[in-house]
Amino acid sequence: MLLAAAVLAIATASPGMIAYEARARSAGNRRVEAVAVAERLLSAPHLASIVKVRVDAAGGLAPVAGILLSGVKLHARAVPGWGSMLREADRLAAQAFAADATLAEVDIWAAVPLNLAVGTKFVSGDLAVPDSAIVFTRTQQRGGAAHLWWDAAWRSREFSAR
Question: Do 66 and 56 meet the contact criterion of CB atoms below 8 Å apart?
Answer without folding.
Answer: yes
